[in-house]
Design a protein that fits this description.
alpha+beta, CBS-domain, 5 helices, 31% helix
């Protein structure tokens, strides 16, 4: 799991969000409200829902095009459960929450693929 993940808000412009993604080297940012995820914005959301529809990235906002369904797991769940959830929903990333529903990080398929088999039974946090 990656901690200290960049995030955004519904009021951020698409241009600012795309710049943040580029600087962080990521294709997805969780959208938070009061420290809780309410959606995600992906580079694909910006391209397909905004650019393809002629929205101006300087004036359009994350809330206009974000994906509102957030797939999550809890930090104390097993890595195997996170992998199962990704496979079940055909997704590449899960937002990781604490039991207070606050975001603590993101886990990706690449994170899972890089783990030795013996470490896959442990918690998502790797602790």
């Amino acid at each position: 799991m990656t901690r200290g993940v960049e995030t955004t808000s519904t009021g951020a412009t698409l241009q600012a969000t795309a710049l943040k993604m580029r600087e962080a080297g990521v294709g997805m940012l969780p959208v938070l409200e009061n420290e809780r995820p309410i959606g995600v914005i992906t580079d694909r959301d910006i391209t397909v829902r905004a650019t393809a529809n002629g929205l101006d990235p300087r004036t359009s906002h994350v809330g206009d095009v974000m994906t509102r369904r957030v797939f999550c797991c809890y930090e104390d769940e097993s890595i195997e459960e996170a992998a199962r959830r990704m496979e079940e929903h055909t997704i590449r990333r899960l937002v990781v929450l604490d039991r207070g529903e606050r975001m603590v990080g993101v886990i990706t398929r690449d994170d899972l693929a890089s783990l030795p088999r013996e470490e896959r039974a442990g918690p998502v946090t790797g602790e």
